[in-house]
């Protein structure tokens, strides 16, 4: 129980605070979503503090990607591996507090000025970039398997499935899990 | 792709909204965005595809997790700050519990080959899912004031800079984003 709450090597209060503060700062730098701050998180918790190994860090990100829910939950898994549930509180609160406060302010501003020309220019001008960023994310996620034709076929098959049917994405995910477990991709 | 022409709906209560966000979060493997588009636009019909894209554009430029920012904005739009809190809790709580249980299991099954392969296969599918979201949202660009050629150019330059050249996002947003906004400003008048 103690392990679950505080991790196998409990953080000191000062270490907990530095974990929290670091994620607090990264939250404000995560302009393209939390995943863009991964390199700096790795530098801090693995290289600088030595709280977890590089393998543990990579496994944390992979695990959260395979689980349901927002990608940002990889932050919780890193926190858990660093300091149990107290680590989860540090990394999740650090990641969410500044960004949600800012988003709340921005949404009030945007609904008050929805018809203002600058507001429409903001959203109209950034829409194509948003789609470009999604396409880039898709490309980067395929990074480890991009050279295998089976992986490309599976990714394109998923695309066609999602465009042609109204079925849940859980179906292609199940196919991917089985194909991967059998060593086909 | 069916166009949604019927009038929009709104969530019946905070509880209904909490359940809707939990439901979409629990379906989202490798990112919730594709599911969010399907659930919020096509299934619940709380917003049009164009509204979804505009909100996503704002959420994407704000720091922090895009989908959490979006949940917050949608919750706030319907029920104020209580709605924002409800939507964010709804999208995070259940998957947080699941992922922590998985983290405990993972600590105990390190090095099992079948499990590593399954994770790899699911990563490939996640890539296809995000591409399908991009594809569907791209159809919303037809109504963009900048016109198709400019939109296509901005989209491709972003893909090139981030996906291939791997430039830091901050410079891409400040550079291409500013160009896009300036062009839109001129076209909108």
Give an overview in words.
The complex is a heterodimer of chains A (185) and B (189). Chain A is mainly alpha-helical and 185 residues long. Chain A has a domain at 2-122. Chain A is built from 8 helices and no strands. In chain A, helix 2 (13-29) packs across helix 5. By secondary structure, chain B is mainly α. Chain B folds into 2 domains: 1-139, no CATH class; 144-189, no CATH class. In chain B, helix 1 packs across helix 4 (66-108) and helix 3 packs across helix 4. Chain B is globular and about 60 Å long. Chain B starts with 13 loop residues before the first helix and ends with a helix.
Q: What is the count of β-strands of chain B?
A: 0
**Major sheet size, sense and barrel closure of chain A:** none
CA(first)-CA(last) distance of chain A: 39 Å
| Class derived from helix and strand content of chain B | mainly alpha
**Largest interface, and how many residues on either side?**
A-B, 98 and 109 residues
The number of distinct structural domains of chain B comes to 2
Helical content of chain A, roughly?
over 70%
List the SSEs and their pairings.
The complex is a heterodimer of chains A (185) and B (189).
Chain A: H1 2-6, H2 13-29, H3 38-48, H4 54-66, H5 74-112, H6 117-141, H7 149-164, H8 170-181
Helix pairs in contact in A: 2-3, 2-5, 4-5
Chain B: H1 14-27, H2 33-43, H3 49-61, H4 66-108, H5 113-138, H6 148-164, H7 169-188
Summarize the structure.
Chain A is mostly helical.
């Amino acid at each position: 129980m103690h392990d679950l709450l505080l991790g196998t090597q409990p953080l000191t209060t000062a270490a907990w605070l530095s974990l929290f503060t670091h994620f607090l700062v990264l939250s404000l730098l995560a302009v393209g979503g939390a995943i863009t701050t991964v390199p700096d998180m790795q530098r801090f918790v693995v290289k600088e503090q030595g709280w977890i190994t590089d393998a543990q860090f990579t496994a944390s990100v992979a695990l959260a990607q395979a689980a349901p829910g927002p990608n940002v939950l990889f932050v919780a898994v890193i926190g858990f591996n660093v300091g149990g549930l107290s680590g989860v509180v540090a990394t999740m609160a650090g990641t969410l507090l500044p960004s949600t406060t800012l988003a709340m302010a921005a949404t009030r501003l945007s609904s008050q000025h929805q018809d203002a020309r600058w507001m429409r220019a903001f959203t109209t001008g950034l829409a194509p970039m948003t789609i470009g960023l999604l396409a880039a994310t898709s490309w980067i996620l395929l990074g480890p398997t991009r050279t295998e034709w089976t992986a490309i076929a599976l990714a394109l098959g998923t695309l066609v499935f999602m465009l042609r049917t109204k079925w849940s994405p859980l179906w292609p995910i199940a196919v991917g899990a089985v194909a991967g477990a059998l060593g086909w991709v | 792709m069916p166009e949604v022409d019927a009038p929009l709906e709104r969530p019946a209560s905070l509880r209904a909204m909490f359940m809707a966000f939990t439901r979409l979060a629990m379906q989202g493997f490798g990112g919730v965005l594709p599911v969010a588009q399907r659930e919020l636009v096509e299934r619940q019909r709380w917003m049009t595809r164009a509204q979804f894209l505009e909100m996503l554009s704002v959420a994407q430029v704000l720091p922090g997790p895009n989908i959490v920012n979006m949940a917050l904005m949608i919750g706030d739009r319907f029920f104020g700050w209580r709605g924002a809190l409800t939507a964010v809790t709804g999208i995070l709580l259940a998957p947080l519990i699941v992922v922590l249980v998985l983290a405990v299991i993972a600590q105990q099954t390190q090095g099992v080959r079948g499990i590593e392969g399954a994770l790899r296969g699911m990563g490939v599918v996640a890539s296809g899912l995000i591409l399908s979201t991009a594809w569907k949202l791209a159809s919303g660009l037809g109504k963009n004031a900048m016109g198709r050629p400019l939109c296509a150019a901005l989209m491709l330059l972003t893909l090139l800079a981030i996906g291939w050249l791997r430039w830091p996002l901050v410079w891409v947003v400040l550079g291409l984003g500013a160009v896009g906004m300036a062009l839109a400003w001129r076209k909108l008048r």
